[in-house]
Design brief:
The chain has 232 residues and is of the alpha/beta class. 38% of the residues lie in helices and 19% in strands. It has one domain: 3-Layer(aba) Sandwich (Rossmann fold). The chain is built from 8 helices and 7 strands; from the N terminus they run αααβαβαβαβαβαββ. Strands 3-2-1-4-5-7-6 form a 7-stranded mixed β-sheet, sandwiched between helices. The radius of gyration is 17 Å and the shape is globular. Catalyzes the methylation of 5-hydroxyuridine (ho5U) to form 5-methoxyuridine (mo5U) at position 34 in tRNAs.
């Protein structure tokens, strides 16, 4: 299984990170067990400070239709499925066969087969087949693909809907000059910077960048806009 080397690069003071991660309300039951299992296996699921934030946010926004890009073992999909309003649904996209099998096993174990739909394949293709509209979208996938997925996601997100994009600070290196970035990740570094430059100040969006985990970008869609130019 591919490991995320950014997991141990805090973007805030290590003491603050420790406080955020261990002093807030813990999960319970099966979800906590899955969280602990992921931690033992070093599977890069969303960290606990992001879990707590999403829990708070779902209480506030009451989403019903949720879309996720990047299922992994199904932890975040299960978290969101437990917190959508009655009758709510989570649709999640994953292309890694190993992750898909683990996610399906976990979803069945939680008896969530009726609330979570796993779509198997390339998000760039699958997003074009969906109808929406979605109240909330969570994107946690290949970082270099964010600009490619974003236009399709914005077409699917309702006006007033919220998009959360995970891992945008790259272990705190997002603002470094490219010459200091290892060559193997320069493409990601460049694309993320271009992406952030575009969306953080766009007039049709309201955006906020939070130092949770490896950076969580929150976007509210204020109005419809064609972002297809970002694919190029």
């Amino acid at each position: 299984m591919k490991r995320n080397r950014m997991m141990d690069w805090p973007v805030v003071n290590p003491g603050i990170l420790e406080y955020l991660r261990h002093q807030q309300m813990e999960l319970s039951g099966q979800l906590r067990e899955l969280q602990e299992e992921a931690s033992r296996r070093r599977v890069p699921v969303i960290p606990h400070e992001t879990v707590v934030f999403l829990d708070w946010l779902f209480d506030l926004t009451q989403p019903k239709e949720v879309l996720e890009v990047g299922t992994a073992i199904g932890f975040s999909a299960l978290l969101m499925a437990e917190r959508v309003v009655e009758g709510g649904q989570v649709t999640t996209i994953e292309r890694n066969p190993q992750m898909i099998q683990e996610a399906l096993t976990n979803i069945s174990k939680f008896n969530m087969d009726d609330k979570i739909t796993v779509l198997e394949g390339d998000a760039a293709e699958l997003l074009q087949t969906l109808e929406g509209p979605y109240d909330f979208v969570f994107m946690d996938s290949a970082k270099a693909k964010y600009p490619e997925f974003f236009p399709e996601i914005m077409n699917l997100l309702k006006v007033g809907g919220v998009l959360a994009i995970d891992d945008v600070l790259q272990g705190g290196t997002i603002m470094y000059d490219e010459k200091y970035i290892p060559k193997r990740v320069r493409k990601i570094h460049r694309k993320l910077n271009e992406f952030l430059d575009e969306v953080l100040t766009h007039e049709s969006l309201k955006a906020s960048l939070l130092p949770l985990g490896d950076g969580l970008l929150m976007i509210t869609k204020k109005e419809n806009h064609d972002f297809s130019y970002m694919k190029s």
